[in-house]
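Q: I have 84 residues here and want to know how they pack in 3D. Can you give me a structure?
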Amino acid sequence: MCSIALNKVAITEDFFKLSICLAGEILQKFINYNTKLSIIGDSTCCSNNPLKDFIYRSNHDKNIFFVSTEENELKSWQIPDKLD
């Protein structure tokens, strides 16, 4: 499995407009190719409730993570010792 980290500032603002569907289309490619993606940057300041929900659901999946720091990125990629 491949893992990629991307800084939030490198992403167009359109990515975060869920009505455009750009995020869903791009992130689905990562899921299809079984590639983990971490988007590093502060996502807590967004006031858009659908975007907050999207980030929350992504962070509870196994491929896509929105993290605030690189240290959190490393934690998000850890593989648990045993399955719950």
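Q: Anything worth noting?
A: The radius of gyration is 13 Å. Helices lie at 22-32, 49-59, 70-76.
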